[in-house]
Amino acid sequence: MSKERKSGPRRETLDDFVARLGTEDGAHARAAAEAIDELETRAHPVRGIERRLLPYFGVAVVAFIIGLILFFSGKDSFFGVLKEMDNLGITLLLSGLPALVCYYAFRVRWRTRADARSFALNQKHFIPHGGIYFPAAEPGERAWVVQVDASQGWKPRPSKYDNIKPGPIW
């Protein structure tokens, strides 16, 4: 037996979505879509940075592990005759990974803000009218409004940790 394939969510263009709304709601939705498009334009160069940094993360993790092994082994000489040279070498091995993590966090800070702002605009102007606006992923592609159940909206799922209150630190 083969299962029936579920059809994906229904998509429509922004113009069709705005045409279904009244003039005031349509104007707000169009302005929100333009703001989301602007946010996506600014965040687009950072999309996929994880894939570009993956080889560097691999090298940094290996160097970090080697640095930890050398640090905890307690031998006198690894990189040269002088103890200062050993300390410098171990420091360089151990500092690569934290430096790369800081670089990554610095580069994606704008993308995180843009995504949060886009979500807020979608939640305010599109979800109440039964849609979620997705800007074009690449220049020249089409933007879509995906139909959702307006009565469901977006509701945060409670976590089992929501009821836990922080206790004393010590």
Summary, kept brief:
The protein has 170 residues and is mainly α.
What would your notes on this structure say?
This protein is mainly α. It has one domain. It contains 4 helices and 3 strands; from the N terminus they run βααααββ. It has helices at 14-20, 23-43, 49-73, 83-125; strands at residues 11-12, 131-134, 144-147. The longest helix has 43 residues, at 83-125. The chain is elongated, with a radius of gyration of 25 Å.
Number of helices: 4
Report the span from N to C terminus: 60 Å
Low-confidence stretches: none
Number of DSSP strands? 3
Q: Helix- and strand-based class?
A: mainly alpha
- Summarize the helix and strand pattern as letters: EHHHHEE
Overall pLDDT confidence? 81
**What is Rg?**
25 Å
Beta percentage is 5-15%
- What sort of overall outline do the alpha carbons produce when their principal axes are compared? elongated
Largest sheet: 3 strands, antiparallel
Strand order, main sheet: write it out. 1-3-2
Overall helicity: 55-70%
Number of domains: 1
